[in-house]
Queue: 3 jobs
Job 1
Amino acid sequence: MKCMKCGADAVKGFTTDVTDLGNCLIIVRNVPCYKCEECAEVIYTGDTIRKLEAIIEQAKKALSDIAVVDYGKYAA
Ligand SMILES: [Zn+2]
């Protein structure tokens, strides 16, 4: 996987995704991603983006101000 910003190699890893919905902050931990070794740009695969969207939809229904979700628990 190559970085879309600088073209350097991006390596597999995990990140914490934060989505600010204005009235609610959703934090998803342990999200699989590719991280650029040069500029620290984080790249998600299409599959991960779809799962993240599903997780965020679920978290929205909880109607709390801050939701912290572990990606692994949903994606398993
Ligand atoms: Zn880069």
Note: The chain has a mean pLDDT of 92.
Job 2
Amino acid sequence: MPTAIVFGATSGIGRELAEFLIKDGYTVGVTGRRESLLNELQVEFRKKVVPEVLDVQYLDKTTLVFDRLKSALGPIDLVIHAAGIGYENPELNWEEEHDTIQTNVLSATLIYDLSFHLFKEQGYGHLVSISSIASLRGNRHSPAYFASKAYQVNYLESLYFKAKEIKGGKVFVTDIRPGYVDTRMALGNDKFWMSTLEKASKQIYRAIKKKKRRAYITRRWLLISWVLKIVPSWLIKKVM
Ligand SMILES: NC(=O)c1ccc[n+]([C@@H]2O[C@H](COP(=O)([O-])OP(=O)(O)OC[C@H]3O[C@@H](n4cnc5c(N)ncnc54)[C@H](OP(=O)(O)O)[C@@H]3O)[C@@H](O)[C@H]2O)c1
């Protein structure tokens, strides 16, 4: 029976992906801070989920939970990192910048590394992380969020290169870069740009199954990414 861990499975993209996996026969370790939402998953899917209440900012606890889930599930086929946070913070309030860096940079790195070490030891496995289109440029309203996503994208690319050195070619790294998705943390509320959670999650799940190196979600964001990469700063500063 295939196994997976989803970090950030209590709501939004992580919760949707956890459900897809369960319906596809996976046993899934699900984590998040909101215990009641983890309990709901357990009531709905019983033996298919192993819940662990976890605030990923506590790094020692994150390592402990990772080990506990390994013991409970056995070999792990897939780790999805969907635990993320973002603020509109034009005033550069330090608490919000710090919170973002703790979650999206420090704990993300720990989860990436724990997964990579495990997969290297197993000789197989698939690490997926939900980064963002925000990784491509700076933004005056949410500097820490945009920078943290650039960090994730570069770290994931490094792990992708490292995975290529592992004999057998069975360790995969997938970087998912959504645009706006209608979840509680969506930064922006323009419906034209916003994908429904259902549509985005389906596209993400397809990209995971194909073990894509990276995917823009929804597809229109691939075109937008090309533009974002070439527009000069003097022009983009008018919109970002
Ligand atoms: N929605 C968008 O427009 C969009 C666009 C691009 C990228 N993304 C990325 O997609 C990922 C998922 O976000 P979402 O849109 O699905 O929003 P969401 O519904 O708010 O989901 C975020 C998940 O992360 C978990 N999380 C946050 N901080 C945590 C912490 N300190 N410890 C443990 N878990 C934590 C939350 O669980 P608890 O609150 O229960 O802890 C929740 O399960 C994020 O990395 C986000 O940056 C989202």
Note: The chain has one domain: 3-236.
Job 3
Amino acid sequence: MVIYLSGELGAGKTTLVRGLLRALGVRARVKSPTYTLVEPYVVSKLYLYHFDFYRFSRSDEWAEAGFRDYFNRDAVCLVEWPEKAGGQLPAPDLRIVMNVNESSRSITVDADTEAGQDCLARLTP
Ligand SMILES: Nc1ncnc2c1ncn2[C@@H]1O[C@H](COP(=O)(O)OP(=O)(O)OP(=O)(O)O)[C@@H](O)[C@H]1O
Ligand SMILES: [Mg+2]
């Protein structure tokens, strides 16, 4: 599963991932991957990789960094700043966009694949 998280600096992308990991039972510190680029988590048989590509400046840096193997069928990849990774980043199952306005916040979730739709169907009553 590949989940893109978009939104300006400080929109709440890392906070959302932290909440998701806490809900899955992860007790370890959930750090922003701004400097490490990726933070891995294992929950039962599930591998979750939290990426932040904000620091990428060239579109081929993602491929050079060797992250392709992380995007496999046993993994959930949560990606902050996917737009910085260039066109070779695998397409998302879910696209989450967070917006901060003067007095309110909003979030949009779109499913691009059947797996993504299945995920959304489980969320909505
Ligand atoms: N829904 C929310 N309401 C109020 N404050 C929030 C909310 N979500 C996040 N914050 C606060 O905003 C700050 C930035 O959040 P966060 O680090 O999650 O942003 P980000 O989108 O990951 O930013 P970056 O692009 O720099 O990685 C934090 O101090 C966090 O506590
Ligand atoms: Mg962040």
Note: The chain is about 20% helix and 30% strand.
